[in-house]
Design brief:
Blueprint lengths: L12 H16 L2 H12 L1 H8 L5 H8 L3 H13 L10 H10 L1 H5 L6 H6 L3 H7 L1 H26 L8 E5 L5 H9 L4 E6 L1 H4 L8 E5 L11 E5 L7 H14 L6 E9 L8 H17 L6 E2 H10 L4 E6 L4 E7 L1
Parallel strand pairs: 1-2, 1-4, 2-3, 4-5, 5-6
Antiparallel strand pairs: 5-8, 7-8
Helix pairs in contact: 10-11
This protein binds S-adenosylmethionine.
S-adenosylmethionine binds next to α10.
């Protein structure tokens, strides 16, 4: 019998990735069988069958007395393996319906469009419709995957020297996960509403904390707040920014705001980017009660009212800019 030789060292990246996946398959290959067994024990297929039609995550979790966030993770895996299928349901209309009520919002004392369509605001709606919250957070996570590299490219130095960072309204923690991956010296805190963080996946270097940013914000060297303040009116933003200020060191702390800055006139900036910022302003009008996109003058007003003295703005390769505020 001839000598058995080791396979030559793999040369290209694709082969490396395949080899890594193969190793994982040998280690956890039984996982699929175990999760199918779990689905049988929970009675997922039986529940859907006896319901007679497709079910929403919240219907299925109450029928099975399961935690919606844990059940969602199991189903996500099984759907990925084509064992269950997600059918297009009423998620689109949830975000579309408020647009039909946009004219109501424009009236003097008009009702917010989302409330008119669904009877409550977007965030309260999400607390009782966890499938919608999951979908919303996944959509925001996709955006975060584009935003974080753009922020690093445009002003990565803003994270230098930070020992800890809290992402206020950080959703499922995707942004903070990417931040600590790029800056492993940072202890990351992902802060959002309790029902949002309870469905968030674990991520190395990131602690999920549930709470209400209008009450208090976890302490850290700096606060990061992306695509959040534009959801709120001036008074609410001032309140959140004050809570952020209380959470950071008085001397060396800073708040890193990622949000659009609307150009006052279209002469100086990029026309297409500004056009999209104005479109986002319409989205805020349709989806939030008090949110809006702001000009630099409007940003300065709320930031100064919240007690910050110094403001720096850095445009990045995105619709949003980076606004850094120092106490
Ligand atoms: C538009 S999303 C932005 C998510 C994330 N920062 C991003 O850019 O991907 C706004 C986030 O604010 C969170 N939020 C709303 N009200 C909140 C509150 N009172 N306290 C903490 N987070 C809140 C929502 O749950 C949501 O995750």
């Amino acid at each position: 019998m001839g000598e058995i030789q080791r396979e030559p060292i793999l040369e290209n990246e694709e082969e490396d990735t395949q080899a890594e996946l193969d190793v994982w398959k040998y280690v956890f290959g039984f996982g699929e069988m175990a999760v199918v067994k779990c689905a049988i024990e929970l009675g997922i297929a039986d529940a859907i069958e006896s319901h007679g039609d497709s079910m929403t995550l919240s219907e299925l979790s109450s029928a099975l007395a399961c935690s919606p966030s844990q059940l969602y993770r199991i189903l996500r895996f099984l759907m990925h393996r084509n064992i269950f299928k997600q059918t297009p349901n009423n998620q689109g209309p949830i975000m579309l319906a408020p647009w039909h009520a946009l004219s109501t919002r424009a009236l003097a004392n008009g009702m917010p469009s989302f409330e008119k369509a669904h009877g409550e605001d977007l965030w309260s709606y999400g607390a009782t419709n966890l499938a919608h919250t999951q979908l919303f957070n996944e959509a925001m996570a996709c955006n975060a995957r584009l935003m974080i590299p753009a922020i690093f490219e445009g002003c990565g130095e803003v994270f230098d020297g930070l020992g800890s960072l809290v992402d206020v309204g950080g959703g499922n923690g995707t942004a903070m996960g990417l931040l600590v991956k790029a800056c492993p010296w940072i202890k990351g805190i992902n802060f959002d509403l309790p029902h949002v963080v309870s469905g968030a996946p674990n991520c190395d270097g990131v602690e999920h904390v549930g709470g209400d940013m209008f009450q208090s914000v976890p302490k850290a060297d700096a606060a990061f707040i992306m695509n959040v303040l534009h959801d709120w009116g001036d008074e609410e933003c001032i309140q959140v920014l004050k809570k952020c200020r209380e959470a950071i060191p008085k001397q060396k702390g800073k708040i890193i705001i990622i949000d659009p800055v609307v150009e006052e006139d279209n002469k100086t900036g990029d026309y297409k980017l500004n056009d999209f910022r104005l479109m986002l302003d319409m989205v805020m009008m349709a989806h939030t009660n008090t949110g809006k996109e702001r000009t630099m003058k409007e940003w300065e007003y709320i930031i100064k009212e919240a007690g910050f003295n110094q403001i720096t703005v850095k445009p990045i390769r995105a619709v949003q800019s980076v606004i850094i505020a120092f106490p």
